Amino acid sequence: ARLSKNWLIAKLSMIYVEVIRNVPLLLQLFFWYALITETLPGPRSAITIMPGVFMSNRGIKVPAPTDHGAFDLAAIGFLLAFVLIGIMVNLAKKRQDATGKAFPVYRTGLALLVGMPVLGWLIGGAPLELDVPKLQGFNFVGGATLTPEFAALLFGLVLYTAGFIAEVVRSGIQAVNYGQWEAASALGLTRSQTLRLIVLPQSLRVIIPPMTSQYLNLTKNSSLAVAIGYPDIVSIANTTLNQTGQAIEGIMIIMAVYLAISLSISFFMNWYNKHIALVER
Predict the structure, then answer these.
(1) Angle between helices 247-276 and 233-244 (to 10 degrees)
(2) Statement: the pTM of the whole predicted model exceeds 0.70
C-alpha cells in the first residue's frame, strides 16, 4: 500500500507503519486490553455485531459448531486439501517444465480449499444447527468465546508484526530493478501480472531472510501475554513453579518450548529460502 500511486492510501499506510513500529509492543497490548475491558459495555448491554455475535467487556461471543461428526470430516477435508495442493504444485511444475503450458494452480488450489471441507460436511449429513450464545443472567452461555486477554494479544501481535513485515515486503519489491517493470509494460503485461509473475518471484529472495526473523520475533513476543493476564505457557509455568518451588526446572521447560518452536520455524523458512534461491548453471 505504501507503493500505491494513490496519495491517500500511501500516506495512511506510512502513518500506520511508523506508529506501529515505534511504539513498544507491551504498551500496545495494554492499550488493546484497556480498550476492550474499559470502553465496551457489560453483557446485558452487549453490542450486537450480527445475529448471534456479541461484543462486551467479557469478550466476543460467536456461534460455534455443535458436537457433530460432520465438522470433524470437514476439518479432515481441509487438511487433505493442503496435501492435494502440494502434490498438484509439484505436478504442475513438472508439466510446465516439460511442455511449457501453465496450470491454473491458484484457482484449483482455492477450489480444493473450499470444496474439500464442504464435501466432508456433506458426507457427514450437512448439519445446519449451531450453538448460538444467549444471554442468561449476567453473562452469555453457549457458543465460543474470544476472551478480552486473547483478543488484546491477537490484535496487538498481528498489527505490530504486520507493520514490520510490510516494510520487509516493500523493501523486497523496491529491490527489483525498475527496468523489470518497464520491460513487462512493454510486453503488454498489466501491473498485477507484472507484480505476480516477474517482480514477486525475484523479490522473494530478498524478502524471505528478514521475514524469518520477524516470524521468530512473533513467536518470542507472544510471551508478553503474561503481562495482560492471558494464561499462556509462561503464565502456567509461573503458577507451577510457585506451587512446587522448582523455578529452574520451570524456566528451562519454557526455554525448551520456545527453542523448539523457533528452530522449527527457522528450519522451514531456511528450506523455503533455499528452494526459491537462484540456481547457477
Answers:
(1) 160
(2) yes
